[in-house]
Amino acid sequence: MATGGTPEAIARLVEQFNRLPGIGPKSAQRLAYHILRVGDEEAEALANAVLEVKRRIRLCSVCCYITEQDPCGYCTDDRRDQSLVCVVEQALDISAIERSGGYNGVYHVLHGVLNPMDGVGPEDLRFRELLARVQGGSVSEVIMATNPSLEGEATAMYAAKLLGPLGVRVTRLARGLPSGADLEYADDVTLLRALEGRQAV
Q1: What residues of the chain score a pLDDT lower than 50?
Q2: What is the fold, at CATH topology level, of the domain defined by 3-56?
């Protein structure tokens, strides 16, 4: 038995759930007790799904996206503009861009951002693979779609310095006021970016 009378197996399950991003102690406890209540079949299905993901999912050798086939579906889709590469921080970011319906190029996933405070340098990210793609000569533009955070900006600037000498165009996603927002509630940085990125009407 764990401290406080909680069975050891439950305490271990709570601890594992608590390690997941976005899951706090209370949510971890709720999930653990939910697993306890469901039938063996449902619990086994969850465990098998976790194991299957670990066994079958790998990184695409071209764009570093998560995939079951290599190269991935984005890289092998001949309807996509292979000369246009959108660089994102995480694989999850691709879903957001795809939902917009406004992009028809391919992707490159860095799997993080530069963050010296956390010990994350260029060698920890997928810059080597990005450089190899651009050196291949078929890429004409690289769109940096990293988040507008300090780390995201530093990562975009590093990529621009890295790729600039190769003659490829490096662009950054436009930033500014979200649709329907009031100026009085916008922060200073957002307003500054909106002014810098203004367009002709």
Answers
A1: 1-2
A2: Helicase, Ruva Protein; domain 3 (1.10.8)
